[in-house]
Amino acid sequence: MKLLCALLLLPFFFEGLLAQCPSPSNLLNDAGEKLCARMFEHSNIYFEQSCGGSFLDAKNGDDFPYMPLGWGNKISSLVVANRCTLKVWSKSAKGGNNRTFNAGVVYQLKDYSNGLFGDWNDSIQSYYCTCT
Ligand SMILES: *[C@@H]1O[C@H](CO)[C@@H](O)[C@H](O)[C@H]1NC(C)=O
Ligand SMILES: *[C@@H]1O[C@H](CO)[C@@H](O)[C@H](O)[C@H]1NC(C)=O
Ligand SMILES: [Ca+2]
């Protein structure tokens, strides 16, 4: 019986251990401030291992025609908080292609098309985040 319990609990344990993407309904920074979005350096085909590496936080109203230093063409996954919208562009100064992400988890930006042949992995060069 003990073994059975252990086996049943194992998957949940690992899921908890590996879960990385924060929930759109409770997107806060360490100081407890509400975020508009959090953007991550890495992604993973295993969704529970996505949202890895360093991250860049956007607050309501954050408007970056030019990415903060070191963040150009780097974002691979992201989470947009409930009632918020993240708009992104593929070129600096809000140029190139654009795309709007509503509240939710984007486990792999690679899965979102950017122009005819491209995708959004490591392709964000401007962003604007707003919440209602
Ligand atoms: C987004 O891209 C479309 C298509 O190229 C363009 O018409 C539109 O003006 C762009 N929107 C913004 C806010 O840059
Ligand atoms: C995203 O782009 C980076 C840099 O080109 C690459 O190392 C990484 O494998 C890409 N991720 C995916 C999911 O394709
Ligand atoms: Ca990346």
Automatic annotation (TrEMBL):
According to its UniProt entry, the protein's GO biological process terms are: exocytosis
* Chief location category: other
Q: Could you tell me the membrane topology recorded for this protein?
A: Peripheral membrane protein
- What Gene Ontology cellular-component terms does the record carry? zymogen granule membrane
Q: Where is the signal peptide?
A: 1-19
Q: Pfam families in the record, alphabetically?
A: Syncollin
Compartment(s): Zymogen granule lumen; Zymogen granule membrane
- InterPro entries assigned: Syncollin
Indicate yes or no for the key word Cell membrane: no
Per UniProt, which keywords does this protein have? Cytoplasmic vesicle, Disulfide bond, Exocytosis, Membrane, Signal
Q: What does this protein do?
A: Functions in exocytosis in pancreatic acinar cells regulating the fusion of zymogen granules with each other. May have a pore-forming activity on membranes and regulate exocytosis in other exocrine tissues.
Q: Which PANTHER family does the protein's record reference?
A: SYNCOLLIN
Q: What is this protein called?
A: Syncollin
Q: What is the lineage of its organism?
A: Eukaryota, Metazoa, Chordata, Craniata, Vertebrata
